[in-house]
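Researcher: Here's a chain I'd like modeled. Treat it as a single chain, no partners, no ligands.
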Amino acid sequence: MNDRLDLGDHEQVMSALRRVLGEEGKALTALAASLDDDWVEAVRWMADCKGRILVSGLGKSGIVARKIAATLTGTGTPAFFVHPVEALHGDLGIATRDDILIVVSRSGGNEEVLALVSSLGAHGVRSIGLGAGDDSELARRADIFLHTPMQREACPLGLSPTTSTTLAMAAGDALAMSLLQTRGFQREDFALLHPSGALGRGLRMTVAELMHTGDGIPAISVDACLRDAAVEISGKRLGCTCVLTADGSLAGFISDGDFRRALLEHDAPLDLPVADLMSTSPVTVPADCLARSALRRMESNQPGPIMQVVVLEGDRPVGILHIHDILRAGIRS
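Model: Modeled as a single isolated chain. C-alpha cells:
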C-alpha cells in the first residue's frame, strides 16, 4: 500500500497517523508478552559486568544503539557506542574481557556487525544480540539473543525501519530501567550525573536559590494590628507576612487565608492585634533544604497544602519561599 495522502482530508491524515501508532503499539504489547528467561539473564549479566557495556549497530540500528548507550550511561551503567566498521579497523583495543557487547540489528545478518561479535568474542568479550531475526546468524553467534518479534514494519512500503527500531529502542529502555532498579539508582544519583541539565539543576536546587530575601521578606512587628498586616501582604505580594519580636525573631505568621478568616469571623478585625490572629507554629525550612523537599512539605501539609514556607536561620527569618517560585523553576515533587 502506498496511497498518496490528501492533506486536505483531515480524517485520512488522522487515520494514517493512528495506523502507524497502532501497529507499533501492538508490536510493543506482543514484545512484552514474548519475553523469556534470556531477558532476565541479560539483565543479570549487565548488572554483574565489571567493565563497560559496549553497544553497537549500523544504520538506523546504530542510531538506536547510540540512544541505548546514552540511556545506560545516564542511569548509572557505564556504556558507550562502538561503530562496527571503525571497530574492525583498529578500535577493538578499547574492549576488555570484563566488557559486554550489545549488538542491535534488525535482520541479524549484517557482515560488519557479525564480524564485530566474532572478533570481540575471540578476545573473551560476551555478546548480547538484539533484533527481529530469531533465526539469523546473529542469533546463532551471540551468547544471548533477545528476540524482538514483529510481523512487518509500520512503513506503508514495508521498507523503512519503523516498528523494528521502536521495538529495539523500547527493549533498550527496559534493560536500562531494570538495571536502574537493580542498582537502587535514585534522584540524587541522577542529579550527580546530569549536573548542568534542567533535571539535574532541579534536583540539586536549594531553597536559598529561590527564596525572597532582605527587603523582599514581608514582616511586621508582633505589636502590629491586622491593618498593618494587610498593608505588608499587599505590598510584598507573597500572600503572607512574618510576625517578628523586637529582636527580629519569628513570633508567628499571617497568611492571606488567616486574613480572610479574620474578616469573616470578626466585625471590626483591622484593628485587632496580629498576636491574637497569627499562627505561632508556621512551617519552616532551613536555607540549605532542597527545593523539591520544601515543595513536598508544602503539598503534604495538614490539614491542607500551603503556599509559603518561612526560611529560618536559628530563630530568625532569612527568606520566604512561595510555591510559585518552585514551580517556575520547573521543580516537581
